[in-house]
């Protein structure tokens, strides 16, 4: 994975250059003939309005103290999304975070505490709408009745493993639970990278990424794709072992009382097969005493 600027910025900018079609940007394949897909460094520099030498030093991690205007110009030149732009800002300024000075062991970074107000919000939701509270490193911190069994049986998992990214890649039952496992895994990795661009102190997030990069070959392959995403809503198919296949939508948003935490809620259209199955799923779990 790498813990310094060069390890992060070089593959990211190369991947973003390769993802662009020169013809869409007015460049042709005239001499010299292209040896790689995408834009050449000089074409990115031209679009960004900076020298080829300066862009080369940036891509190689040898430039320091880039201004916001330069980073913005490179983002425009490479047609970066908002999430990719944030990630670029983050990896060019690692000293702001200082995470390279800290341990990458998960055990050295405590899981966040769920404030009472956030727990009250979770408890007030319809039990037939599975809901979970996530921490900054994708830790699963709390859930309602159906949320604890809609995918993995969360009550049976050791606290150290209660992390959605760890479960997707390391739990042997994940591929059975998610018919679209590869898509889900790729989105998880892209979201982890996107989170690095938004969090001001991503120590626990870095520790999760470090562990997965060390332990899991599927994660390493997905990480090398350099995708960045923000996953605040979407669609998911789940093969639930208790009630059968579920086709749900989800929305995730910061909790006002604890903006470093996110509440994720699964729903289904009223009267649908999935909605009926979610009702049955909630009924299977006893109400807390």
From TrEMBL:
**Where in this chain does the record put each HTH cro/C1-type domain?**
34-85
Q: Which GO terms describe its molecular function?
A: DNA binding
SMART domains xrefs: HTH_XRE (SM00530)
Superkingdom, according to UniProt?
Answer: Bacteria
- The name on file for this protein is Helix-turn-helix domain-containing protein
Native source species:
Microlunatus soli
């Amino acid at each position: 994975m790498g813990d310094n600027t060069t390890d992060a910025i070089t593959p990211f900018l190369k991947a973003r250059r390769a993802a662009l079609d020169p013809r869409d940007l007015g460049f042709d394949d005239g001499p010299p003939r292209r040896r790689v897909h995408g834009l050449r460094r000089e074409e990115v520099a031209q679009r960004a309005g900076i020298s080829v030498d300066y862009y080369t030093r940036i891509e190689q991690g040898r430039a320091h103290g880039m201004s916001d205007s330069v980073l913005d110009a490179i983002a425009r030149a490479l047609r970066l999304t908002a999430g990719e732009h944030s990630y670029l800002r983050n990896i060019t300024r690692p000293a702001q975070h200082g995470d390279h000075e800290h341990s990458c062991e998960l055990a050295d970074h405590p899981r966040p505490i769920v404030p009472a107000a956030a727990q009250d919000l979770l408890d007030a939701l319809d039990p037939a709408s599975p809901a979970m509270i996530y921490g900054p490193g994708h830790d699963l911190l709390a859930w309602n009745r159906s949320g604890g069994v809609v995918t993995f049986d969360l009550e049976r998992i050791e606290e150290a493993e209660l992390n959605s990214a760890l479960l997707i890649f390391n739990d042997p039952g994940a591929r059975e639970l998610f018919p679209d496992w590869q898509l889900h895994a790729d989105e998880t990795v892209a979201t982890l990278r996107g989170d690095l661009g938004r969090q001001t102190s991503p120590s626990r997030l870095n520790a999760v990424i470090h562990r997965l990069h060390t332990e899991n070959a599927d994660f390493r392959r997905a990480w090398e794709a350099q995708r960045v995403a923000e996953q605040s809503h979407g669609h998911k198919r789940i093969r639930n072992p208790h009630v059968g296949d579920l086709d749900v939508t989800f929305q995730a948003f910061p909790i006002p009382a604890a903006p470093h935490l996110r509440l994720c809620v699964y729903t289904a259209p009223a009267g649908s097969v999935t909605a009926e199955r979610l009702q049955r799923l909630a009924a299977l779990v006893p109400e807390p005493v």
